Amino acid sequence: LNHRLMAPLYPPLVVLTTLATDRALSAAGGERGALRRVLVGAAAVWLSLTVPLTAQVLGEAAAGHLRNDPPGGAVYSNDAPGVYHLTGIPARWGPRRHVYNSPQTIPDDITPIREARAEGAAIALVWFRHVPPYFMAATELESRLDVEPVARAADGMLYRMR
């Protein structure tokens, strides 16, 4: 959960660095040999520093608590595709409300989750902080469902229903 938003930053940085290197080589003109060696060396150092960092960022996100200790039941989230992308665990959309929070248009997503838990199903909720407004906030989720925090990350929480 901690670094899921940083990983998309690296491919554009690689492209921008490549374009900057090409522009610098074009602008250098006559002293191409020396400049090329310096730029290739700088690119090699940059790649040697960022590739392990990228692997670490992706590894931390993918090998987080949910992946290391899967709940064995249903996983609900306010970013179901994100959970699947980071962990490989399929997730369902969690409780949501209408954008305008009108009582007549609030979907009753809580009841099926409560019924599944009453039948003995293990249920985990992965709740990210930065979400669309039609999903319940973490505090609202805690007040409406009987959940216990399992793991806390910079950009979200992992809950288990009691």
Question: How would you characterize the largest beta sheet?
Answer: 5 strands, mixed
* Mean pLDDT metric: 75
Strand order of the largest sheet: 2-1-3-5-4
Per DSSP, the total helix count is 6
What radius of gyration results from the CA coordinates?
Answer: 22 Å
Residue stretches low in confidence (pLDDT < 50, at least 5 long) are 54-63
The count of β-strands is 5
Strand content range = 15-25%
Alpha-carbon distance between the two ends: 22 Å
- Please state the structural category: alpha/beta
**Oligomeric state:** single chain
| Helix-strand topology string | HHHEHEHEHEE
CA-based shape:
elongated
Essential attributes:
alpha/beta, five-stranded mixed beta sheet, 162 residues
Mind explaining what this structure looks like?
With 162 residues, the chain is of the alpha/beta class. It starts with 9 loop residues before the first helix and ends with a strand. Helices cover 48% and strands 15% of the residues. About 6% of the residues have low confidence. Helix 1 packs antiparallel against helix 2. The protein contains 6 helices and 5 strands; from the N terminus they run αααβαβαβαββ. Strands 2-1-3-5-4 form a 5-stranded mixed sheet, with helices on one face.
Q: Would you spell out the secondary-structure blueprint of this structure?
A:
Elements: H1 10-28, H2 32-62, H3 65-68, E1 74-77, H4 80-87, E2 92-93, H5 110-118, E3 123-128, H6 138-144, E4 147-153, E5 156-161
Parallel strand pairs: 1-2, 1-3
Antiparallel strand pairs: 3-5, 4-5
Helix pairs in contact: 1-2
